[in-house]
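Q: Hi! First time doing this. I have a protein sequence and I read that you can turn it into a structure. Is that right? Here it is:
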Amino acid sequence: MKKILIVLMIVGLCSPALAESDAAKSLEQILGQKGTTQKDVVKFTFPRSDLKVKMGNVRVVPGLALTSWAGFKLMDEQSIVMGDLVLTNQEVQSVIKKCGENGIQITALHNHLIGSVPNLMYLHYVGTGNPSKLAQAIKAVLGATKTPVGKTGSKQEEKQSTDLKKLESVLGRTGHQKGNLIQFSVERNDTISENNMVIPSALGTSMPINFQMVGKKAATTGDFVLMADEVNPVIKALSENGIQITAVHNHMLRETPRLFFLHFWGYDTPERLAGGIKAALQHVNAK
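A: Yes, that's right. Below is the predicted 3D structure, encoded as structure tokens:
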């Protein structure tokens, strides 16, 4: 009898982790690629390597501003998926229709860049339910686009090792470099929730700051996640440092506290761009 109780206790202790692992594997099988796991969130990225996009004379690589993503927060009863899709104008209405057919709620549709060729739109979404069914829904939605699914990356230029250290020195933060792309992720020092559920940073409440090296210069874009009182000080700091404001809008519908997402574009020396980003971050309650 004691042996049976011990076995039941072990199964009871292990089953949540096993269930989570099984759920993650199921998501990977449906979406055809490995996800990255951060606590109870499994995230998938879908670079739009099929698109050839330019901002002025800059050929934008997918990791700078052209990556769709889906993050799954695995929970006991109902899991949640959140993310956004990079879309051409021609794909927007088909994707909206597919979202409706598959129970995915649209939370925002807007630009992130100004003046890109071709013009792009970004659709943010949320869905709740069984994780496998949610993954099947996201796959169906992606099927309404030309997004490569099942591919985890795209070709980058050769690594320029010195630029990462320069940017890290100016920003005082640790970044990640892949090819000519340098990325930083800055978390807010707040608890963000929606419908009484804490939204982890992996589901879109952290601030991505991306740099693409272009010879001795760089292009930068990303978004600041801001409280209302932070919006205009950040706009002022970026503008004073030659960084353009390209959008201010919502990504979610019922988050607490209310958030504003500010997108930007800059093209200059990497040190000057990083200095502008650092000046703006001084007005944000960031970690």
